[in-house]
Amino acid sequence: MTQENAPRGHGASTAGSPTGFRRLTPGLLKTDRTAESFAGLPEGVTMHGQLLAAFKAAAPRLGLSLRVVHAVDWLFKFTQPQDWTRGGHPIVWPSSSMQQEALGLSPTRVKAVNRAMIECGLIAMRDSPNGKRYGKRDAKGRIVEAYGFDLAPIAARHAEFVKLAREAKEERDALRRLRRRATIARNGIAQILETAAEYGFEGEEWTRLARDTRDIATALKRVENPDEVALGVDNLERRQRSARERLENLLAAVAPDIPEAVNPDPLGAENGPHQYTYKPNSYPQEDTVIANEGSSRPGGEAGMSRPTPVRPQPAERGRVLKLDPDELVRLAPRLKTYLLRPDPTWPDVIDAAAYLRSDLDVSKSLWGEACLAMGREQAAIAIAVVSVKDPEHFRTTPGGYFRGMVMKAKAGELNLDRTLWGMRRATEPQRAARGGAAARARTWQ
Q1: % of the chain residues with pLDDT over 70
Q2: What is the dihedral of CA 276, 281, 284, 285, to 10 degrees?
Q3: Residue 3, number of CB atoms within 10 A of its CB
C-alpha cells in the first residue's frame, strides 16, 4: 500500500526545517519585552556607568562567568550618554571580528558568550534583514537606526542588581566576622595547649584537641557558605570553652604551687631591649646625691649634708656564678643567634635569652617569674642550660622543664653551679680533667 504526499509549493517550509533565524526561547522573549519597554535611566541613576557598576557587583551572586561579565563590560564602551535618555535606546553594533579580537576568543566561543548573555536576560538582539550588525547616528549623535546588541535589559534590572550586590556584601561581611571568630577560637585553643604543656599536663585529650582544631581550621578554608562556616566556628568555640574549663580544673588542683601575684612583664616590652638604670662611669666618684640629714645649724636653719658618692654598680662584664658572658655563649651556642655584637655584656646576654625563650616554648609570664625568682642574669643562664639539652631529655617540653627550674629556685633548691660544671665537662673535657680540682679552681673561679 502506498501513500501519496501533497506536493509542496515553491518556498514552502515546515516547522522542523531550518531557517537560519535565531531560535525563540522563553528567556529571549522575556528579554525582548523588557528591552522594548525602555524609557531611560531608572530613578536615582544619573549616568549609565552606575548601571554597569551595579551589574558587576551583582555578577558573583548571579553566578555569571568572568567571560560574560567581561563581554558586557566591553559592550558598554560603545554606548554614549544620549543613548540612555528617554527617547534613545542603548544599542551597539560591534562586528564579530572586533568582538573576537577584544575578548580573545574563537568565533564559536564568542557565539556561546552571546547566547549566555541573551539567556541570562542581560541583552536583547536586534537583527537586521540581512543578519548584519550596523547602525547610524545623526548630527547630534542620536541613534536613528541600529541593529546589534540591545543593553536596555540591564537598565531595567538595575534595582535587582543593587539588591543582589547588597546581599553579596552582607554575606561577605558575615563570612569575615565568622572567620575572625574562628581565628580567635584557634588562638585561644593554642594558648590553652601551650599552658597545659608548660604545666606538664599530659593526656590523649590534649593531642585530640590539637588534631581536631587543625582539621576543622583546614576544612573551614574550603567553605564559602556562611551557614556551613558558622557550624565550624561554633564547633571550635565549643571546644575552646570545654578545654578552658578542663584547664581551669587542673590548675585549681595544683593551685598551691602557683604564685599568687607575679608581674607578667618585669622586662618591659616582650621583645624590646632591657633598660638598666645605672650609668657605667670610669669615675664613679663624680656621681653624687644630696641627702638631707635632718640636722639643724645654729639658729634653727635646716642643714644640708655634704655630697655622698654613689656606690659603683657592678661591671656589665662581671662574673655571675663564676661565669662571664663570653663563656656562657661558648657553652650555649644558641644564644649567639640573638646577640648583636661579638663581645657581649650581661645585658646583651639577657636580651638574647629573652628572644631564645620563645624558641623554647617558654611563655612571657614564665620568663617574668624566673627573673623575679632568680634575677635576670641567672634566669638567662637557666634559659641557656635548657637550650643545650637534648629534646629526648625533656619529659614534657622545654617550657615545662624550665618551669621546674623556676619552682626549684623559689624553693631554694636550684643548683646552677653544678649544672654549669657539667656543661663545662661536656664541652671541654680535657680542660676539665687537667689538674684536678685545683686546676679547675684556678681556671674558672
Answers
A1: 76
A2: -130
A3: 4
Which set of grid coordinates corresponds to residue 418?
Answer: 653544678
Q: Are 24 and 33 in contact (CB under 8 A)?
A: no
Q: What is the pLDDT of residue 391?
A: 82
* Grid cell at residue 170: 552582607
| Contact of 350 with 380, CB cutoff 8 Å | yes
How many domains does the chain divide into? 4
**Do residues 424 and 322 lie in contact, with contact meaning Cβ atoms separated by under 8 Å?**
no
Same domain? 171 vs 200 = yes
56 and 43, same domain (yes or no): yes
Task: Record the cell numbers describing residue 220, joined without a space.
Answer: 573551614
CB 143 within 8 A of CB 83: yes
> Which positions ≥6 away from 46 have C-beta within 8 Å?
none
Indicate the range of 169-173, 271-275, 376-380 predicted with least confidence: 271-275
Nearest to 198 by CA among 402, 399, 409, 408: 399
> Average pLDDT, stretch 373-385?
91
Q: Would you call 408 exposed, middle or buried from its count of C-beta atoms within 10 A (0-12, 13-18, 19+)?
A: middle
Of 129, 156, 183, the one marking the end of a domain is 156
* Domain around 296: 279-312
CATH of residue 57's domain is 1.10.10
pLDDT in tens, 71-125: 999 999 999 999 999 888 999 999 999 999 999 999 999 999 999 998 889 999 8
CA dist 241 and 244 (Å) reads 5
Q: Give tens-digit pLDDT for 142-176.
A: 999 999 999 999 999 999 999 999 998 999 899 99
Rounded Cα gap, residues 310 and 278, in angstroms: 11
User: How many angstroms separate the CA atoms of 80 and 71, rounded?
Assistant: 17
